[in-house]
Amino acid sequence: MVSDKILISVCIANFNGEEILFECLDSIVRQVGDFSVEIIVHDDCSTDGSLNLLHEVFPNVQVIVSKNNVGFCVANNRMVAAARGRYVLLLNNDAVLLQGALQTLLAYAESLGKQAILGLPQYAYGGGGLIDCGSDLDLFLNAVPNQHWRKGDVAVVIGACFWINKELWHELGGFPESFHALAEDTYLCCRARLAGYPVRIAPGSGFLHRVGYSLGGGKATAGELHTRVERRRLTERNKTFALLACSPGVSFFFLLPIHLLMLCLEGGGVSLLTCRYKIWRDIYLACFKALWRERRWLARFRVETQCKRSCTLVDYFSVFRILPQKFRMLMIYGFPRIS
């Protein structure tokens, strides 16, 4: 990394990540290329030894210390505001870059000739198996993992390894801070597609990811789906917010009511089968309450998101799947185990 001018800013949101932060940062330091990189870490009021690790082992890393726990979205917005690079890579502290990752992203970004959101193939930490090369979406913004190497356009690039031009980040408005965490990547990718910007996976290299390390769940284990109440609550609420904001034109009037009906049926079914009213109250009812409580902000949020739309309905939905992903997962794994 020999250029004097900062070209790439790698931003890492960290909360109590002492056990995993070294490997993440070391994978960045070991990247090779004729470009200059700065590393920014936002420490979200950690109570472990994260700050000592940063100061003692990585003294050249710029550290933003938060006095309060502000969440993933605010942390990334703060880091991008402080970043000096033309390109920004948002990287989870539970992610590890493979060799050549930054060079691959930079070369692909500069070959496109226009601003874009990019990602890399995602591999499971430990086993090394391919998880996805980005994801498509169903009509209700549930991610459908893409396993096709040659497919360029995708609907979503996972926020664990999220490359974007800094100028485009500011144009799109960054992550909605009210999301706190989860589905913020889905929203920003959908907003980029609405505005006519591509969302793609850069072919080559990749990253390892400890899926579910931070918030728990998020993957199938021993033949069943497992998640946590807090993760599911944030996911369902934020996907609903993103659907409301991003559904283009008349599709909004069909998709949102169907989505809300499906949430009612899903929440009622899971709660009855598990005999746990808490699941309905803390996940699904909480989503409807949030919609009502934030209705004025959501109305402005939709207008703000739609005003920059430049794509057609056909273009927007070209990377969407008709079959609901939750139905497909139900057929494979049954109802998720929620703890």
Automatic annotation (TrEMBL):
<feature type="domain" description="Glycosyltransferase 2-like">
    <location>
        <begin position="9"/>
        <end position="171"/>
    </location>
</feature>
<dbReference type="Pfam" id="PF00535">
    <property type="entry name" value="Glycos_transf_2"/>
</dbReference>
<dbReference type="InterPro" id="IPR001173">
    <property type="entry name" value="Glyco_trans_2-like"/>
</dbReference>
<dbReference type="GO" id="GO:0016757">
    <property type="term" value="F:glycosyltransferase activity"/>
</dbReference>
<keyword id="KW-0472">Membrane</keyword>
<keyword id="KW-0808">Transferase</keyword>
<keyword id="KW-0812">Transmembrane</keyword>
<protein>
    <recommendedName>
        <fullName>Glycosyltransferase 2-like domain-containing protein</fullName>
    </recommendedName>
</protein>
<keyword id="KW-1133">Transmembrane helix</keyword>
<feature type="transmembrane region" description="Helical">
    <location>
        <begin position="241"/>
        <end position="262"/>
    </location>
</feature>
<dbReference type="InterPro" id="IPR029044">
    <property type="entry name" value="Nucleotide-diphossugar_trans"/>
</dbReference>
<keyword id="KW-0328">Glycosyltransferase</keyword>
<comment type="similarity">
    <text>Belongs to the glycosyltransferase 2 family.</text>
</comment>
